[in-house]
Amino acid sequence: MVTFLAxxxxxxxxxxxxxxVWDPGxxxxxxxxxxxxxxxxxxxxxxxxxxxxxxxxxxxxETWWGIADDTTTTHxxxxxLADEVGLETxxxxxxxxxxxxxxxxxxxxxxxxxxEFMEIGDRDRAVHVTRTSLLDEGKSLTEAICxxxxxxxxxxxxxxxxxxxVATLVHTEAGETIHFQEYWVARRGEPAVADVEFRGAADAxxxxxxxxxxxxxxxxxxxxxxxxxxxxxxxxGVEAALSATPVVAVSPFVGxxxxxxxxxxxxxxxxxxxSTAGVAEAYxxxxxLVLDDDDPTELPDRHVERTDTRIDDAxxxxxxxxxxxxxxxxxxxxxxxxxADAEVAE
Length: 346
Description:
Rossmann fold; alpha/beta; seven-stranded parallel β-sheet
């Protein structure tokens, strides 16, 4: 059994290869829900749905968001209606009272659907309607996602990190507090980041299923350490669980160059070095790291596996997954050596 912590696109890309290395029935995927938003009354779970759609064979692999070849008729009509009467199509937060009223799972991240600042495809929207309706029928988020996983024929076990609300909020140097989706989708990562908050995390709990999954060896793929993995680490007991099991992390950097996304700006914003060294510092519980062959970073106190870590297709993903497998095997067998040990042996 092996468990992957998934957020953004890095770990879902790695899963393309992981299912060639491990039996999919023995893989659990714990997905970040800090990025979730309620948009026009429907709960949208981007990091969950990337895994859901990829496993179901329908993911748009050009964008790594939404369903391939989906139509956007409803989204376009929402934009047209707003434009017709001069309504702002930028993110429209509901007021403070509404943010903590109604459906608890959507706290601190409720947006009006007027103008719909995130593009939601028509088939994609059906998933959000189904998930939200199951929640309104009394299902937990875990139960709702399990139902959707069955509908998409997933072979892996897909788990949200918590059934409780956690919202990833970006504090900007301009003094604003905005949800991560506004920061990344609407503003394209433009505001300078002063800090990142995981609102609700201190009072949230990982589910029993997540705690059970974290007892298995864990792989953290090349995801953003701050907003993709950080919300999971902020949950009570998660770091302790990771400290008690073998953990391998794949760096999303090559030295101080990030493969994609806002990881560098976010890490700098929270006071971490935007580099592989900063990733290692963010994951003190990681027993081993998988680094790119061209990464000059030296980690004398960790076991390191090196390979080409760029993932453009399933073959690349399998190569990186096999490096993770080697690292986990070395850690589990007590044979892991640090790079410093290897230099001494030479």
